[in-house]
Design a protein that fits this description.
The chain is of the alpha/beta class and 186 residues long. 32% of the residues lie in helices and 22% in strands. The strands form 2 sheets. It has a 4-stranded mixed β-sheet, with helices on one face. The chain has a 3-stranded antiparallel β-sheet with strand order 1-3-2.
């Protein structure tokens, strides 16, 4: 997961790992901390498998990239190491044709999460929206498991209702596209 400090990438990774465990998978969230400050690029990683996970390091060959911020790709190479047949779940209001994608990307989920976040939270915090987008794009985790993980997380009281709405809208408003070789020739 790529985002900026203050957008909740680390919390999103934790919620996703909890949801995957809820569905019977093994999962671990691995935050990546340095000298991050609000607005600086941040990464968080989630490993999932059907068997126990012992490796607690960053992921250098991801199958899926979840980008919480439409501008972070201008600062860091979010595609570094992505495996062939990879998936990108991107916060953007741009059409697919306007994105520069490496040939390794085969599936793209696009969600205008900033606009949704401003409507719900009045701030560009996109983490729960993009978890919904991830669920729709990949099918890796169900919306029900993500809801349960949110309900068990730090979102209690008023914030929970907003985040559940954000999760659902992220799922509903994501456009998923499967690319063929001609689409990936960029």
């Amino acid at each position: 997961m790529h985002g900026r400090g203050g957008q909740g990438a680390v919390l999103a990774a934790t919620i996703l790992a909890s949801a995957l465990v809820e569905e019977g998978m093994c999962a671990v969230a691995v935050p990546s901390f340095g000298f991050e400050r609000r607005g600086a690029p941040v990464a968080a990683f989630v490993r999932t498998d059907s068997k126990e996970i012992r490796q607690m390091t960053n992921i250098y060959r991801p199958d899926c990239i979840l980008c919480l911020d439409p501008t972070v790709g201008h600062t860091v190479n979010i595609f570094e190491g992505v495996r062939a047949g990879g998936t990108l779940v991107q916060t953007t209001n741009k059409p697919l044709a306007d994105l520069l994608l490496p040939p390794a990307i085969a599936t793209v989920g696009l969600c205008d999460a900033v606009t949704i976040a401003l409507a719900i939270f009045r701030r560009p915090i996109t983490n729960t929206i993009m978890l919904g987008a991830l669920a729709k794009t990949t099918g890796l985790v169900s919306l029900a498991a993500l809801r349960a993980a949110l309900e068990a997380s730090e979102f209690r009281d008023a914030g929970l209702a907003q985040n559940l709405t954000a999760l659902q809208r992220g799922f509903d408003e994501t456009v998923v596209q499967h690319l063929d070789k001609a689409d990936r020739a960029a």
